[in-house]
Amino acid sequence: MTATGEQQAAGEINRLLVRLTRFLLRNSAEGGFEVRDTVRRVADACGAKADVLAIAEGAVLTVRHRDAPSYAETVQVTPELARLDLVSEGKFLVRRIVDGELGARAANRALTELDRRPGPYQPWLRGVGVILFAVGFAPSVQATWTEIGYSVALGAVMAVVFLAAERASVLRILLPIAGPLAVGLVAFAGLQAHRQPGGPIVLMVPALFVLIPGDYLCAATAEIAVGQLTPGAVRLAQAAFTLLEIAVGILIAAEISGVGTASLFEATVPRGLPYWLIVISWVPFVFGMALTFSARLRDIPWILVLTYLAWGVQFGVTKWVGPDAGTFIAAALLAAAAGFLELSPDRPPRIVLILGGFFALTVGSVALRGLTTLDGGHSIQGFSDLRDAITQTAAITLGLIVGAVPVQAAAVRRRRLAAAP
Questions:
Q1: What is the DSSP code (8-state) at residue 31?
Q2: Cβ count near 157 (within 10 Å)
Q3: Local structure of 75: helix, strand or coil
Q4: What is the dihedral of CA 306, 311, 312, 313, to 10 degrees?
Q5: How buried is residue 384: exposed, middle or buried, by Cβ count under 10 Å (0-12/13-18/19+)?
Q6: Between helices 282-292 and 350-361, what is the axis angle to 10°?
Q7: Helices 3-26, 32-45: crossing angle, 10 deg rounding
Q8: Which residue from 12, 240, 288, 416 has the fewest beta carbons nearer than 10 Å?
Q9: Helix/strand/coil (H/E/C) assignment for every residue in 361-378
Q10: Which of 256, 139, 141 is closest to 188 using CA atoms?
Q11: Average pLDDT over the chain, rounded to whole?
Q12: CA-to-CA distance for 262 and 265, rounded, in angstroms?
């Protein structure tokens, strides 16, 4: 190959790796080390060497070529997890590149087309997804018909705000405050949620669950646990600030509606739903999550199976050994199952498989309840919820890390066998 041809080939590789880095940062909430490892594997397949220094919202990409000058680029993008279909298709595209089916130019073209692909669902259908997401989660917060009724009404309010935020950039930035503010005003002024026996917070949490950054909390702690201190600290601060924004939105709604922050309490109420309804509630929850975050229809059965695995293990083990141990064991089995399923080239990636089960275990709602009840003057309950959120976050994170260890060992072994003559 001539020097000019080598320069052009290196340029195609550089453009591919920059676009891939941006794509992975935007469409994943698993942590910077996942982005780094994927970019390295693609660069190796293209005959180059790459490294990524990532923080939560950006990365510095360095590419070294055998016969061309080194290349460096800074990538900045706002991370989100709104298009699970792109995450799945991205995995399959990466596999084709690593397997040698696509060269750098063809891969660059395919990734560009993937980036421009419209969402699989109409906006109104995603709004229905937000409602199903809230209704499906409601029985796990408070197993009463009142909880389900409030979740339908408040989930519809959240769906309107959620979809409006996608059309208006200013509202998108303010969504963590605007969403709780709208939900809170309807709950307090229209539905008198503060007069219900269990308190208004548990009635609003299912509708607000779509905003709670539980995945970011655990991604942050996982990054810190493996030594990625800078992105972990940034992501942890981002998640904590988002929780604070949601709590502030509820507080403002309580004050504007005239009920006051003293009404922000929570209390345990007797279970009023049949057990079978609590069990099947995870079905609309998963379908709602898939519609809200644009997951592919063919991925829903896998998500549903792992959601039931996480919830069932946590529910069963907690009865015997306590909530923290139950959460740890459930998270470890969830991570192991998702990791081994991901090894198949035809199944969706880990973050898609694990997300439903992760939401079932998530502690973001507990932290939100702690912040709001604390501001409402209920110190004992508030600090108790915050303590539970911290311990359960650690349990989930450690469980996910422990569960990923055998999967990583199996993946390394498979790559060595594939590379052997």
A1: -
A2: 22
A3: strand
A4: 90
A5: middle
A6: 130
A7: 150
A8: 416
A9: HCCHHHHHHHHHHHHCCC
A10: 256
A11: 82
A12: 7
The pLDDT tens digits of the residues spanning 256-285 come to 988 887 777 777 778 888 989 989 999 999
19-65 pLDDT per residue, tens:
999 998 887 665 566 788 889 989 998 888 998 887 767 888 999 98
* Helix H or strand E encompassing 293: none
Structure tokens at 122: 């109409």
Q: Which residues have a Cβ under 8 Å from the Cβ of 189 and sit 6 or more positions away?
A: 257, 258
Phi, psi of 76 (to 5 degrees): -130, 130
What is the mean predicted confidence (pLDDT) over 384-394? 66
Q: Which residues lie across from 76 on neighbouring strands?
A: 58
Query: Could you read off the pLDDT of 136-145 as tens digits, one per residue?
Result: 998 888 889 9
* N residues, the chain: 421
pTM, two decimal places: 0.84
Q: What is the DSSP letter of 71?
A: E
Phi-psi region of 254 (alpha: psi -120 to 50; beta: other; left: phi over 0): alpha
DSSP string for residues in 339-366: HHHHTSTTSPPHHHHHHHHHHHH--HHH
Quote the pLDDT of residue 364.
46
Where is 62: in which H helix or E strand? strand 58-64
3-state SS assignment for residue 379? helix
Contacts of 373 (CB under 8 A, 6+ apart): 199, 201, 264, 265, 266, 381, 382, 385
Task: Name the 3-class secondary structure at 73.
Answer: strand
d(CA 287, CA 292): 9
DSSP state of 58: E
Question: What DSSP state is assigned to residue 262?
Answer: G
CA nearest to 213, candidates 63, 336, 56, 344: 56
